[in-house]
Design a protein that fits this description.
Layout (H helix, E strand, L loop, with lengths): L21 E6 L2 H4 L3 H11 L4 E2 L11 H10 L1 E8 L7 H17 L2 E7 L3 H6 L3 H12 L4 H12 L4 E3 L13 H16 L12 H5 L15 E6 L2 H4 L3 H11 L4 E2 L13 H8 L1 E8 L7 H17 L2 E7 L3 H6 L2 H13 L4 H14 L5 E3 L5 H16 L13 H12 L8 E6 L6 H12 L5 E5 L2 H8 L1 H12 L10 H12 L4 E8 L2 H7 L11 E6 L2 H6 L4 E4 L9 E2 L6 H4 L12
Parallel strand pairs: 1-2, 1-3, 3-4, 4-5, 6-7, 6-8, 8-9, 9-10, 11-14, 11-15, 12-13, 13-14
Antiparallel strand pairs: 15-16
Helix pairs in contact: 2-8, 3-4, 4-7, 11-17, 12-13, 13-16, 18-19, 20-21, 21-22, 21-23
Amino acid sequence: MATPQAFPSSSFPSFRDREWEFDVFLSFRGPETRYGFTGYLHKAFCEKGIRTFMDLEDLISGNKIQQTFARAIESSRIAIIVFSEHYADTDFLLRELVKLLECSQRCGQFILPIFYLVDPGDVRHQRGSYEKAMAVHEERFKDKAPIWRAALREAANLSGLHYKGRRALILCRDEFEYEFIERIAKQVLAIIKEDSVPVVADYPVRAESHVKALSSFSFPRQYQYHVFLSFRGCDTRYCFTGSLFKALRDNKIHSFMDDVGLHRGNDISRTLIEAIKGSRIAIIVFSQNYADSTYCLDELVKILECQESDGQFVLPVFYDVYHSDVRRQTGSFGAAMAKHEEKFKDDLSKVEKWKRALHRAANFTGFCFDGKKYEHELIGKIVEVVSREIKRVALHVADYPIGLESQVSEVKSLIFSDGYDGVHMVGIHGNGGSGKTTIAHAIYNLIANGFESICFLENVRENSYKHGLVYLQNMLLSNVFERKNLKATSFEKGISTIKHWLQQKKILLILDDVDKPEQLQALAGKPDWFGRGTRVIVTTRDKYILESHGIERIYEMENSNSESNISASDGKDNGDQLGEKNHFPRTSQ
């Protein structure tokens, strides 16, 4: 079918001023979810008074489908895209997706992706059923397929919600479908009421989109600063941002805050550019007059360039402004951009670049301050996030990692073979000197940002013999809870403390060079010790230790007396303890 025609942009008032015919537009694959999930979702919305457009079956055969859908998309405040296994099979839905993204950019609609029984990574990178669908489309629609691929990638990089459909499990269970639908409805109501808190994804977008391909395994990059502060001086220099800078400095976080005289001339100074490049984290304080300053906007563009090229961590703070005003350039941000369009009417590409940067930056999960809580509480939370982030120093990997990329890719496929939920343990087995620790370092560098807390315990065998198991338990606790004085005084007390404090935490735990079953029993006894989404990676020379602990997902290093690199027995692994059974094909070398 032809792409629905867009209405002239001039016919639309601003997002905040306009009247919407619908609160929600539902985009979905009819044969998969119409009479199940999407039908229930539509019913829940109607019961809560949420005006929802859900296409009727007879629209498909009508002559006016193009106009009907275009009008509905343009007239809906929120677009919910239900990505299911075969969503991409239909070229009509892909055209619809492009239209939704165009409207979001032009008119400010909020897009909420729902990943229903499909991995967000499959949508983002077009894997699995999405890869097959796009291969077919590339044969039929050579000119459109690249656009559709880009649209899938863009939509899957937005914060959204993920439903896997696992049955209820002890402590680490996935929610029932009706609970998931209630959560979506609650989020939609918050958006309708213009709640300024951004949607928080329940899958780690940052872990994949911020980390580049495994192109530099050698030495971790050295940064000059931990934090670069971007802010509008006249709004927050002597109040919020000044207090934030002091709190960061008091916590030994090396931060760059520009001097008043650095903004001279027409462009941001070389000093600021070098400071942005040399900072590991960029905190952007969006305040009422932030967009008035072309310097701030140029800084923002540069920050996002560094995020794209180097994986810099971006943390937006919406200080006494609506998150939606930044994202859609309404309110004071709309007024500022209108002035820039007038001033730079001979070079509107510059203004468009600023608009895209504001839109993109506001899609990162951050903090909002509306004046109804103490500033020092918000600053404390920001410092906590920054402290946790800078602890994640990239680990050194081999200078010449021949074949490492493919090995890491295979291990990563084991770690996330069932998506991101549940609690899974993965083993790396090999002889001494086979490169187990190197792979563990590379995996850590690649996925650490997707976890709430991380702990890499090296030389478990050596430390166990020298200091005992209680010492290792205390190392784990101190790594995860830096500011809490948690101490185990005995083996049993250590187990009890770890279970109590870690059951609600999503952590990455790597245990390197394990050689006794009791070491695993002391540090990672059962999946229900940890919060949903946790991954435990164990390297060892003794495969029996992994098998006796119920770890079935095992990567075999070369020359480790194994017939394959990835092995899986027929017994139950930790995934089965969580109500799931996983089988991985044997691959010959």
